[in-house]
Amino acid sequence: MFKSFFVLSLSLFMCFSYAGTTTVSGIGEYDNNNVFAKILAKKIPATIIFENKHVLAFEDIHPIKPVHILIIPKGKYRSLIDFSNNATEIEITALIRAMGKIADIMGITQSGFSMITNSGHHGGQTVPHLHFHLLGGEPVHWETALRDKKTTK
Ligand code: 5GP
User: Fold this and answer.
1) Distance CA 146, CA 19 (A)
2) Residue closest to 69 by CA, chosen among 34, 24, 114
3) Cα separations in angstroms, 13 against 5, 23, 114
4) How far is the C-alpha of 31 from the C-alpha of 78, rounded, in Å?
């Protein structure tokens, strides 16, 4: 009995893990204890790049490119699906407008960048608060990196 429970738990963990990090669902209740909620509440530190009434942007703790900024709405939205369905027009506009400003602040408007969001388990989302990765400072080529790997269905 205990053994079966252990094997089931391990299988579920492996199923919902990506590159050693546990992925989360993009739908469902907002988790007030997620790490970005704590950054928003200033309970844990972050290097903040931009802030206004609706948006916060800060450096990713594990950057994968010379520029790696996380851009989040201040509202409690779990993923792009939640934001797309439930955010106000003002919040949506504020987020998109902030993206352009933040790329400008980071000096990558001319050179270019990728703006990526991961939603749910197959998206590889690990933090259940909507965030966009602003990646730049060198070529990103995320598609090429992914195409090298086999597609799984
Ligand atoms: P996701 O995998 O959900 O698309 O991206 C989550 C991102 O959040 C990762 O790139 C990860 O490095 C970053 N991250 C996780 N915890 C923290 C933290 O405490 N502070 C900061 N600044 N970034 C974090």
Assistant:
1) 14
2) 114
3) 12, 9, 30
4) 8
**CA angle at 74 for the pair 68 and 75, rounded to the nearest 5°:** 130
Task: Please choose from 16, 70, 79 the residue to mutate so as to test ligand 1's pocket, defined by most ligand atoms within 8 A of CB.
Answer: 70
Indicate if ligand 1 lies below 6 Å from the C-beta of 34. no
Q: Tell how strand 17-18 and strand 21-22 pair up.
A: antiparallel
Q: Based on the residue annotation, tell me whether 131 is a catalytic residue of this protein.
A: yes
Q: Which atom of ligand 1 is nearest to the CA of 64?
A: 10
User: Which residues on neighbouring strands pair with residue 73, listed in sequence order?
Assistant: 55
Ligand 1 near 125 CB (within 6 A): yes
Distance, in Å, from the CA atom of 64 to the CA atom of 74, rounded to the nearest integer, reads: 24
How far is the centre of ligand 1, averaged over its atoms, from the C-alpha of 127 (Å)? 7
Residue whose C-alpha is closest to residue 102's, from 64, 56, 39, 42:
56
The residue length of the chain stands at 153
Q: Taking the model in full, what pTM does it have? A: 0.88
Cα maximum dimension of the chain: 60
pLDDT, tens digit (0-9, with 9 covering 90-100), for 56-113 = 999 999 999 999 999 999 999 999 999 999 999 999 999 999 999 999 999 999 999 9
